[in-house]
Design brief:
The N terminus is likely disordered. The protein is elongated, with a radius of gyration of 20 Å. A hairpin with a 2-residue loop joins strand 1 and strand 2. With 218 residues, the protein is mainly alpha-helical. Helices cover 77% and strands 4% of the residues.
Length: 218
C-alpha cells in the first residue's frame, strides 16, 4: 500500500508575522519576469536594427517591436510586487500616459513612428512616461537586490532621453548609450529569469500590514 504525502507550504517569518507563498504568488512573478524578458528582447532587437541596419524596412519594423515592448512592460507593471501601493499606481499611470502618447504620435504622422520620435524630440515628453515607468522598475530592482546593471540603467535611461530632448548629446554618444542600454537590459532580464522566486514576492506580512493600516484609516 502506497501512501502519498502532501508537502505543506513553507512558512516564512516576516517583519509583521508569518506568511506562506502560494502558487498564485509564484505565477505572478513568472508573468512579471516573462513581460520583462519580452520587453528586453524587443528593445534589443529594435536597438540592433537602429544601430546596424538603419534601412526603411527596419525602421518600419520598430513600430510593432515598440508595441510589443510596451505591452510586455505593462503586463510586468500589473504583476510587480511593490510594498508602496501609491508608487505602484504611479508607475502604472506613467505607462498609461506613455502608451496613449505613443498611440497618438504613431497615428498622427505619416512618417514611421521611430522617425517621428527621433525628428521631433518634444515627443519624448509624452512617450518618456513609459520609460520613466521602466526606470522605476530598474530603481526598485537595484534598491531591493543591489544589481549592478540596474544601477547603471537607472541614470542611463533618463540621461539618453533628456540628452536627445535637449540636443546636448551627439549622434555617436546616443548610439553608445543606446547600445549599453540594450545590453544591460538583456543582462537584467536574464538574471531575473534565473533568480529564485521568493525574493521577488517579498515579505507578504508587510503587504498585509500596509493593507490593514489603509483599511483602518478608511
Amino acid at each position: 500500500m502506497t501512501t502519498q504525502t502532501i508537502s505543506s507550504p513553507e512558512i516564512y517569518q516576516g517583519q509583521f508575522g508569518e506568511f506562506t507563498i502560494t502558487q498564485s504568488d509564484r505565477q505572478s512573478v513568472i508573468i512579471y519576469r516573462t513581460g520583462l524578458t519580452i520587453a528586453a528582447l524587443c528593445f534589443a532587437i529594435g536597438s540592433g536594427l537602429v544601430l546596424f541596419y538603419p534601412q526603411p524596412v527596419a525602421i518600419a519594423a520598430l513600430t510593432p517591436l515598440y508595441t510589443c515592448f510596451s505591452i510586455a512592460l505593462g503586463v510586468s507593471l500589473l504583476t510587480i510586487h511593490i510594498y508602496m501601493a501609491f508608487l505602484h499606481r504611479i508607475l502604472q499611470l506613467f505607462w498609461i500616459i506613455g502608451s496613449i502618447s505613443a498611440f497618438i504620435f504613431g497615428h498622427g504622422d505619416s512618417q514611421a513612428f521611430a522617425i517621428t520620435i527621433y525628428n521631433q524630440p518634444l515627443t519624448i515628453l509624452g512617450i518618456g512616461f513609459t520609460f520613466a515607468a521602466l526606470t522605476g522598475i530598474f530603481f526598485k530592482e537595484g534598491f531591493c537586490f543591489n544589481r549592478l546593471e540596474t544601477k547603471i540603467l537607472t541614470p542611463l535611461v533618463p540621461l539618453l532621453l533628456l540628452g536627445h530632448l535637449t540636443g546636448i548629446l551627439s549622434t555617436q554618444a546616443e548610439q553608445v548609450l543606446l547600445g549599453i542600454w540594450a545590453i544591460f537590459f538583456l543582462i537584467f532580464a536574464v538574471r531575473k529569469i534565473i533568480q529564485p522566486i521568493p525574493p521577488d514576492i517579498g515579505d507578504k506580512s508587510v503587504f498585509d500590514y500596509l493593507k490593514n493600516q489603509h483599511l483602518a484609516k478608511v
